[in-house]
Amino acid sequence: MNYSEFEADILRLIIEATDDDVRVFGEETVTRLVRPDLLRGAADDELTEDARAALTTACANVLTISAAELRDELATIHDGILVDEDLDNGVLTAISALAHWQSYLEQNRRGELYELAIRSIEDVDHEVSADLDDFLATPEMAAEYERIRRLLAPGAGHGRRNPLHVVQE
């Protein structure tokens, strides 16, 4: 499968999935993308202390924080970025995931979950460097694609809600 086919399939799965299935997918994916080990590579000169604290708080509470609180944390993070370019890849991944999740919580747009899926694949690609013409050739990429398909397939979430799921207002 090439990268374009992959993108089209992910988009189709997100469009066709039930509301519950996309929510579970979003929760599992954003949690994966804000895991603590992604933040370990950040240099001290990349973020202010306030931005680092906001990022840590947002990541630790991603499933329980409200959209408004997450928006405030993201504003603090963005105001505290000290570098123009070359922000640590893990930090960039986490910030991007938080921004897409915040937008999803606020507007309920599935396109934000598509973006989370792409960020998740990029996270794996950063580790294994997938071939764009045979995107699923590595076991890691194939496993991530299967995780996405499993969560979004018709009926995937029946009776399987994340215990940390909270309705956001």
What is the succession of H and E elements?
A: HHHHHHH
**What ranges have pLDDT less than 50 throughout 5 or more consecutive residues?**
158-169
Mean pLDDT, all residues: 87
Q: What separation lies between the terminal Cα atoms? A: 39 Å
Percent range for helical residues? 55-70%
Radius of gyration: 16 Å
The tally of beta strands, per DSSP, is 0
Basic shape? globular
Major sheet summary line: none
Beta-strand fraction estimate: under 5%
Q: What's the total helix number? A: 7
What would your notes on this structure say?
The protein has 169 residues and is an all-alpha fold. The chain is 63% helix and 0% strand. The protein contains seven helices and no strands. The protein has helices at 3-16, 19-33, 49-60, 67-79, 89-107, 110-128, 139-152. α4 (67-79) packs antiparallel against α5 (89-107) and α6 packs antiparallel against α7 (139-152). The protein is globular, with a radius of gyration of 16 Å. The chain starts with a helix and ends in a 17-residue tail after the last helix. Mean pLDDT is 87; it is low at 158-169.
Salient structural properties:
mainly alpha; 169 residues
Question: Any chance you could write out the topology, listing elements then pairs?
Answer:
Blueprint: H1 3-16, H2 19-33, H3 49-60, H4 67-79, H5 89-107, H6 110-128, H7 139-152
